[in-house]
């Protein structure tokens, strides 16, 4: 059984329970052409003169700020209250020449932040996998801090608070080096450390390990149910541990209503770590999550399916998919059968 049970939905209607559905979040770009950012390769940028390099970055940063504005409007129109900004929004802004160029965009960046606040859209970040604060290479740690500094500087320029409301989300990094992670976090500038949150992953740091690291480092935990399911080889999103870790993670946030979680499904099987196009299984515990980033390949189309099912009173994106029974697509059962089985 997955999703919010049909009887629970019925009870909510009968008792007038008006708790809002979780706020859903778009991750970086759209599957369509609406939100697409420009980039440039290091090889190209370093092959030109300093003047040309700055010109390229000025045009790129200007265009990407415009795309950011479109992304915020895209989210607002669709009722999305969370947006994970691309970690490559301002490529090479961790280099001195990039810093100087980005500093000239103070006004449009502040305007982008104002737009997000007025539209009621929360902005968060998730640096890429190359940011590892507990690597066994000091060079990697140094570069990771440099990248995080640039991303925190961009959030500052957008007048985003130095709190986990504007979360910078990281995985635990190198396995077996939890204490090194705690130590490095303690040395970070406030602009990074006060926004930092740690997420459990499928391999190195499971939910229990990340929960303990978050407690030791004094940062919140971003719980990912699919990573937990893969890491612990669970047979269902309804395993009791998912609800327990969701609740435990909520206690790590300075304000529980800020809690952020991730949802994804396996592409070919329940425990496949590769993300699927759509969300066809949803933990019923996630009905209690305030903010949910939807990590599905189909991006806004996956979110649209979730919202459509909510609008039909299903309560979650897809309570039970026939993939769990060896088929494909959503389950097609009678209302009576769904109610008796707890499926939607």
Q: What is the element string, with H for helices and E for strands? A: HEHHEHHEHEHHEHEHHEEHH
Structural class: alpha/beta
Oligomeric status: single chain
Counting DSSP E segments of at least 2 residues, the number of strands comes to 8
Uncertain runs with pLDDT below 50, 5 residues or more? 1-17, 315-344
**How confident is the prediction overall: mean pLDDT?**
88
Largest sheet: 8 strands, parallel
How would you characterize this protein structure?
Strands 3-2-1-8-7-6-5-4 form an eight-stranded parallel sheet. α9 links the parallel β5 (196-199) and β6 (221-224). It is 42% helix and 10% strand. The model is unreliable at 1-17 and 315-344 (pLDDT under 50). The longest helix is centred in the first third of the chain and has 28 residues, at 50-77. It is of the alpha/beta class and 344 residues long.
Please give a handful of descriptors for the protein shown.
344 residues; 13 helices; 8 strands; eight-stranded parallel β-sheet; alpha/beta; disordered N terminus
């Amino acid at each position: 059984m997955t999703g919010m049970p049909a009887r629970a939905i019925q009870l909510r209607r009968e008792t007038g329970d008006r708790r809002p559905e979780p706020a859903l979040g778009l991750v970086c770009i759209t599957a369509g052409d609406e939100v697409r950012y420009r980039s440039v390769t290091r090889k190209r940028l370093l092959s030109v003169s300093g003047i040309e390099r700055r010109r390229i970055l000025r045009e790129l940063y200007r265009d990407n700020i415009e795309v950011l504005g479109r992304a915020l409007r895209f989210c607002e129109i669709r009722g999305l209250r969370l947006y994970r900004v691309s970690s490559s929004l301002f490529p090479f802004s961790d280099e001195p020449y990039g810093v100087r160029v980005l500093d000239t965009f103070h006004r449009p960046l502040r305007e982008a932040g104002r737009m997000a606040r007025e539209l009621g859209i929360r902005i968060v970040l998730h640096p890429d996998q190359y940011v590892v604060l507990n690597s066994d290479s000091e060079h990697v740690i140094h570069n990771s801090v440099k990248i995080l500094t640039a991303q925190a500087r961009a959030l500052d320029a957008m007048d985003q608070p130095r709190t986990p409301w504007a979360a910078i989300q990281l995985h635990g990094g190198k396995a077996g080096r939890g204490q090194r992670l705690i130590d490095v976090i303690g040395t970070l500038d406030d602009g990074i450390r006060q926004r930092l949150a740690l997420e459990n992953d499928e391999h190195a740091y499971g939910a229990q390990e990340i929960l303990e690291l978050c407690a030791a480092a004094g940062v919140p935990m971003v719980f990912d149910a699919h990573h937990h399911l893969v890491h612990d080889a669970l047979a269902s999103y309804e395993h009791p541990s998912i609800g327990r870790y969701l609740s435990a993670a909520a206690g790590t946030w300075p304000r529980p209503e800020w809690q952020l979680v991730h949802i994804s499904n396996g592409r070919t099987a329940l425990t496949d770590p590769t993300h699927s196009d759509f969300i066809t299984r949803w933990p019923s515990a996630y009905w209690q999550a305030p903010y949910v980033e939807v990590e599905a390949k189909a991006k806004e189309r996956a979110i649209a399916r979730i919202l459509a099912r909510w609008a039909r009173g299903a309560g979650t994106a897809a309570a039970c998919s026939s993939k769990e029974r060896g088929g494909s697509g959503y389950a097609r059962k009678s209302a009576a059968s769904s109610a008796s089985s707890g499926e939607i």
